[in-house]
Specification:
The chain is an alpha/beta fold and 278 residues long. It has a single domain (10-200, 221-253), classed as NAD(P)-binding Rossmann-like Domain (Rossmann fold, 3-Layer(aba) Sandwich). The chain has helices spanning 19-29, 53-62, 77-91, 114-139, 165-184, 204-216, 222-232, 246-252; strands spanning 10-14, 34-39, 66-71, 96-99, 145-149, 190-196, 243-245. It has a seven-stranded parallel sheet, sandwiched between helices. β5, α5 and β6 (190-196) form a beta-alpha-beta unit. The longest helix is centred in the middle third of the chain and has 26 residues, at 114-139.
Length: 278
């Protein structure tokens, strides 16, 4: 299967100021894409988590892409509509939406504060819905429209629910929305898929949860970026309604070398949550 060029295509990425979102932005920029960096952070001087939309925009343009940095809280429906309007004014269309923004707290129902529940579902579920709904009219006009949610294959194994049912439910809901949109948009030629890592990915979120020990067993975000590129450059009429694991997809697409993705070579890789067969 050949890759469809992303040159001149417009890719909207939420939560793109750091981590996996940033890596996807740079990866598609190298293919000549227009990249919309939609995230909240414009000043990280007082934040533990570093990375701003303007820093990523500069990096995107250094890689050869065109960048539009937009300060967006994707929980704000009006701001999401504004994001789409700004994108259309600047680039004239939308060819892909990557729902990368998210929240995590691994607590059981009894322990999770309602405020945190609202944050998790606001980012992981509601924002996916509102961003997709706002982008779909323009994705339908694209020659190869894609929606990509960063969420795992759905599984009803008890182990994925027993310690953090709210978070698990939110991530599986993201995937079910992708399945639903794939069916809804099939005749419009718009794809909806999901992508999830086989191993932990070296991001600020992983470091926050488990410190250096988890970072040592993680892969770099670039593996997710390469996998996202492979999905977004696929024929939307042929590749839709699927849940991909990064390594499995890349192997299927002919990638054979994975050592360069290891964040700390020599350390054992740690498997992420929700990976089938583990």
């Amino acid at each position: 299967m050949g890759n469809i060029s992303l040159a001149g295509k417009t890719v909207v990425i939420t939560g793109a100021s750091r981590g996996i979102g940033r890596s996807i932005a740079l990866r598609v920029a190298r293919e000549g894409a227009n990249v919309v960096i939609a995230s909240k952070t414009v000043d990280d001087s007082a934040q533990k988590l570093k990375g701003t939309i303007h820093e990523v925009a500069a990096a995107v343009e250094a890689e050869g892409g065109q960048a539009l940095a937009l300060q967006v809280d994707v929980r704000d429906e009006a701001r999401v509509q504004w994001m789409v309007q700004q994108t259309i004014e600047r680039f004239g269309g939308i060819d892909a939406l990557v729902n990368n923004a998210g929240a995590i707290m691994l607590q059981p129902t009894e322990m999770l504060p309602v405020k945190r529940f609202d944050l998790i579902f606001g980012l992981n579920v509601r924002a996916v819905f509102t961003c997709a709904q706002a982008c779909i009219p323009y994705l339908k006009k694209s020659a190869n429209g894609h929606i990509l949610n960063l969420s795992p294959p759905v599984s009803f194994e008890e182990r994925w629910f027993q310690s953090h049912a709210p978070y698990t439910t939110s991530k599986f809901a993201m995937t079910m929305l992708a399945y639903g949109m794939a069916a809804e948009l099939k005749h419009d030629g718009v794809a909806a898929n999901t992508l999830w890592p086989r191993t932990l990915i070296a991001t600020a979120a992983v470091e926050w949860i488990g410190g250096e020990a988890l970072m040592q067993g993680s892969r770099k975000p670039e593996i997710m970026a390469d996998a996202a590129y492979e999905i977004l450059s696929s024929d939307a009429r042929q590749v839709s309604g699927q849940s991909f694991i990064d390594e499995d997809l890349l192997r299927a697409r002919g990638y054979t070398e994975f050592d360069q993705y290891h964040n700390a070579p020599g350390n054992e890789l740690l498997t992420d949550l929700f990976v089938p067969g583990t």
